[in-house]
Amino acid sequence: MKESGVTLLELLITLTIVMVLASVAMPLSRLSAKRTHEIELRQHLRIMRAAIDTYKLEWNRDGDVLLGPACVKNKLTCKDVTSVYGYPKSLDMLLGIKLTSEEATIRGTTTRRYLRSLPLDPLTGKADWLFRCYKDAPNASSWCGDDVYDVMTQSQDMALDGTKYRDW
Question: Is the pLDDT of residue 1 over 90?
Fold first, then answer.
């Protein structure tokens, strides 16, 4: 009489094959997760930088000379919300600025928004971005506090391409 079943040797071979496949899959899943975070970081930086650029176009000024259309129409607000170079004084300015011009009351919109909310840094999990002023050097280690010319992550980690995330 022949009994059906699995021998100990067959069980060990199967278990070994499963372990080898799992050891190959784990690094690939970590790599995939890191790549996803990098893509998300690039998107968030692109969105915030585009909002800063749009803000600069609309609220541009050079010292006391008002250049941007929003700045010309909202003279009182302009100097409160922009630096002497026309960049926002803080990232919160991108979330909404109260307009003071007559056009704002005619159109019915008294607030101009550039971002709906501050995106979270996918590497730190918080909206704790680092800033650079217009007059700062490209590799400045601290923010001057006058305006927001650029944003970057606080993460000190290296990207898959060998560059630092902070340099993006």
Answer: no
Question: 118, 96 in Cβ contact below 8 A?
Answer: no
- Split at pLDDT 50, 70, 90, the class of 107 is low
The pair of structure tokens assigned to 125 is 């999990």
Do residues 123 and 37 lie in contact, with contact meaning Cβ atoms separated by under 8 Å? yes
Spatial distance between the Cα atoms of 106 and 102, rounded to a whole number of angstroms: 6
Phi and psi at 33, nearest 5°, equal -65, -40
Amino acid code (one letter) for 115: L
Direct distance between the N- and C-terminal alpha carbons of the chain, in angstroms, rounded to an integer: 71
CB atoms within 10 A of CB 19: 10
CB 70 within 8 A of CB 64: no
CB burial of residue 6 (10 Å; 0-12, 13-18, 19+)? exposed
Contacts of residue 20, defined as CB under 8 A and 6 or more positions apart, other chains included, come to none
Q: What is the reported pTM?
A: 0.79
**DSSP bridge partners of 98:** 111
Per the structure block, which two tokens stand in for 132? 């650079």
